[in-house]
Amino acid sequence: MSLLKKHKAGLLVCLAVLAALVTGCASSSQELPVTDIWALFSSDHDIYLRVPVAANTESVSQVLEYVVPSLSPKDRDRLLSRLETVYLGVSPSQKKSDGSAYFELAAEGNFPSIAVSSVFSKKRGWQKVSYEVQDIECSYFVRTDDSVEASAVSSNLLCLSSSMLPMLDRYASANSGVTSGVPQNMYPDTGLEESILFYSKGSDMLPLPGGFSLPTVSSAAGSLTPLTDESGMRSFIFDGALTVSDARVVRSVAMLLNLVVSMLGGTVSSSENVITISGVMLPEETVFELLQGILPVIEM
To answer: By the 8 A CB rule, do 69 and 75 touch?
Structure first.
């Protein structure tokens, strides 16, 4: 091979690598930072979760398996190794025509474009689509066989959704000074980075300890903090606050909850229209059951 041909071959390789790297969203200057992850989410979801990955790897693996069932175990593990914190919004009450629920997921982590392109490749059944919003050039990946779309909007933020364009629109708006429509006080301040945090519109959307579903509860917020004992057994401490729509029934609802919560080592207190549950010890398998109570509604 002549020197010129070698240079041409080298140039083609460089161009191919650059093409693989141009994935996600970019402006004419630099990557756009997202300071409020919830600004990417619809405010209409029934359930919101924030899950730190390092302390809850198996739970996050379950989430990925449900929202992207087409991912091979190998590709799922490759993604999982790059995740730091997962944020999830689910709308079981907003079923799509195929019966699946509308969901949005954003994950903080390390997502170099070439790695993302290797997972969401044409060979693996994904199609790349270009999109421009507010002078920001974006790309995302789609699958028609499991109704899920994906986009690495930056090198540290990956999004998955049953409909990606609204998230990309909000990504552009978030970087134009538009704030999140998701309630900012949805989660308690536990001060623990490893805690799973949640917010649910109504107790029937997120099962409470003991399997309770209380129609008088308008919202539930709380945390699940993992613990590991000396033998290596994992469990979670459940702390939460329930907002009751009718203040007249707060006392009776609190008494009903206390029957179960006290047997699980926790306490119940109430004030005005809020019932607080503290210190409930839950086995790891029980927490998985709670997650599975949410996840099947978004199975594709």
So the answer is: no
Mean pLDDT of 51-77: 86
SS (H, E, C) the chain: CCHHHHHHHHHHHHHHHHHHHCCCEECCCCCCCCCCHHHHCCCCCCEEEEEECCCCHHHHHHHHHHHCCCCCHHHHHHHHCCEEEEEEEEEEEEECCCCCEEEEEEEEECCCHHHHHHHCCHHHCCEEEEEEECCEEEEEEEECCCCEEEEEEECCEEEEECCHHHHHHHHHHHCCCCCCCCCCCCCCCCCCCCCEEEEECCCCCCCCCCCCCCCCEEEEEEEEEEEECCCCCEEEEEEEEEEECCHHHHHHHHHHHHHHHHHHCCEEEEECCEEEEEEEEEEHHHHHHHHHHHHHHHCC
pLDDT in tens, 99-148: 555 789 999 999 988 888 888 888 888 999 988 877 778 889 998 777 78
Nearest-CA neighbor of 75 among 120, 132, 129, 42?
A: 120
Answer whether 214's CB lies under 8 Å from 261's CB.
Answer: no
Q: Which of 216, 214, 257, 218 is nearest to 238 (CA)?
A: 257
Orientation angle between helical segments 57-67 and 284-294, nearest 10 degrees = 20
d(CA 80, CA 74): 10
* Out of 84-88, 92-96, 180-184, 217-221, least confident range: 180-184
- What's the token pair of residue 78? 């490759």
Q: What does residue 110 show for φ and ψ, rounded to 5 degrees? A: -125, 110
* Residue whose C-alpha is closest to residue 238's, from 197, 289, 204, 285: 197
5-30, pLDDT tens digit by residue? 444 444 333 333 333 333 456 543 34
At 164, list the tokens.
């990606």
